[in-house]
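Listing S7. Sequence submitted for prediction.
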Amino acid sequence: MPDAMVEYLRADMECEGLLECFHGLTDLDRECFAVVVASSSALTVDEIAVEVDRERSTVYRSLQRLLTAGFVQKEQVNYEQGGYYHVFRPTDPDVVADEMQRMLNDWYAKMGQLIGEFREKYDVEGQATPVEG
């Protein structure tokens, strides 16, 4: 992952890179997400763990990060005789994209504000505040 914004801007980025860029998701998170998206039905943690060849607890933590980021949804399925289990399905991509767009707009506004503050602080012609060392 690039350390500086200039590295992000110069790098070739694919849409999957947004998962890392916006939410700090890992390679395993992206792998689990791809399995969930590729499935025609909702999957259990155990089914996903088999597909990615990882321990159930590791996959569960990954799914929790995806759930927190809004990329997957968790649903409870009840057994007729009592008890339940959870399945995971992808969130509608339009919902995810709209949220990332909102986050980007918020970030852009904040960066614009910080750039404005930088201009004011270091404006040499307009009696700028001296740089303290």
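Caption to Listing S7: primary sequence and predicted structure tokens for the chain studied. The beta strands are 72-78, 84-90. The longest strand covers residues 72-78.
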